[in-house]
């Protein structure tokens, strides 16, 4: 009779161990392939994202769709550093800024996420310095296939495609659209 109790305890521990290993395996799969946390480092996405905001990166979304204009993406800027920026132009598009207006293929495009910053400018100040895609690293006439053009929302303090050139889509980790910490900033971000 004592042996049956021992076997029951062994089976109970084994069941707990199996459940724990299954939970750890699922957590690993979710973290590696689907979602992961990221901490915003620096002011380049102000006022949309603040330094030290903690976000969830959807790593799966770009396996089933392409990035869209104004998505906030995380990409490998180097082997050691990931950046978080906003997609501005897509493959095959020409991008330029003139007099603080974004032009895609010669057509003006509104950037609603910049309105608050633009309202605070003094007369004759601009948020984004004028540029054309041809003047930037790579000298492209249009964004090449398999690449995107990205910029930070804090245009005066952002290392982005204006310095780095276009970003290969295979360097994009995923889309960051949910701030989960600090709690008072919990929100879905995007346009």
Automatic annotation (TrEMBL):
The keyword Membrane is annotated on this UniProt entry: yes
Cross-referenced InterPro entries: LexA/Signal_pep-like_sf, Pept_S26A_signal_pept_1, Pept_S26A_signal_pept_1_CS, Pept_S26A_signal_pept_1_Lys-AS, Peptidase_S26
One GO biological process term: signal peptide processing
UniProt keyword list: Hydrolase, Membrane, Protease, Transmembrane, Transmembrane helix
Signal peptide: none
Protease listed as a keyword: yes
Segments passing through the bilayer: 20-40
GO cellular component: plasma membrane
Molecular functions per Gene Ontology: serine-type endopeptidase activity; signal peptidase activity
Active site: 44, 85
Topology of the protein relative to the lipid bilayer: Single-pass type II membrane protein
EC number(s) from the headed UniProt entry: 3.4.21.89
Subcellular location: Cell membrane; Membrane
Catalytic activity of the protein: Cleavage of hydrophobic, N-terminal signal or leader sequences from secreted and periplasmic proteins
Segments forming domain Peptidase S26: 14-181
Gene3D superfamilies in alphabetical order: Umud Fragment, subunit A
Similarity annotation: Belongs to the peptidase S26 family.
Name this polypeptide is given: Signal peptidase I
Organism of derivation: Oceanobacillus piezotolerans
